[in-house]
Amino acid sequence: MKILYSPASPYSAKVRMAARHTGLSVESEVVKTDDEPSLLIENNPLGKIPVLLQDGDSPVFDSRAIMQFLDRQSGGKLYPVDPAGRTQAEVLEALADGITDCLLAHVYERRFRPEEKIHQPWLDKQWSKVTRGLAWLEANPVSFTDGLTGGHIALAALTGYLELRFAGQWETFWPGHRAFITEFEARFPAYSEFKSRG
Ligand SMILES: N[C@@H](CCC(=O)N[C@@H](CS)C(=O)NCC(=O)O)C(=O)O
After folding, report:
1. Mean pLDDT along residues 164-189
2. Among 50, 67, 97, 110, which residue's beta carbon has the most beta carbons within 10 A?
3. Is 62 in the pocket of ligand 1 (CB under 6 A)?
4. Is there a domain that residue 40 lies in?
């Protein structure tokens, strides 16, 4: 198996960390989405990463489908078996990914639109979702009672992306992020190897 990714991509960081955590043998290959290489487009018509390629079988995208796939392949190493714990992990992942979606909307608005067409109210709306999401995390501290889950991995991937692209702008909304990362790194020491880098 191989994951197409880019070093800055938070969703890619999530699935690559998850693959490492499961112990499955998964290679990685960097692709540049802006160039729309055929390897990417032929395996994901949306032209987005991450994509997981399997020998002689269909590609898997997007990141949440990959997470569920890796969980099945590894006999359940990413999500708790008990329904309540599993739902909690999946909702945490949905929150982390949802905040990441808003951050990406910010980055793309500024990267792909000419300066005079950047729509500040749209950016403000996305940012309010980000800060509400971070405040939610502060009010509802993440628990590790079920061990490390796909939810924690998604949240660590989000944190790495916040550090990379939004340094100095988000930390006060979720002061608990330090305790979370300390606990996460204790359970996944390779974090710094995988988190988003520009
Ligand atoms: N919902 C998708 C989002 C994937 C996504 O937006 N990836 C970004 C990189 S972080 C991308 O490929 N952007 C290029 C594009 O949208 O053309 C997932 O979870 O995999």
Report:
1. 98
2. 67
3. yes
4. yes
